[in-house]
Amino acid sequence: MTPVPAPHDLPQQVERALEEDIGGGDLTAALIPNEALGQASVITREAAVVCGIPYVEAVFGRLDRKVRIDWRTTEGARVAAEEVLFHIRGPARALLTGERTALNFLQLLSGTATAAHAFAERIEGTGCRLLDTRKTMPGLRTAQKYAVRVGGGQNHRIGLFDGILIKENHIMAAGSIARAVEAARATRAQVPVEVEVENLDELSQAIAAGADIAMLDDFSLAAMVAGVERNRRAIRPLKLEASGGVTLDTIRRIAETGVDFISVGSITKHVRAIDLSMRFEWAT
Question: Are 28 and 103 in contact (CB under 8 A)?
Answer without folding.
Answer: no
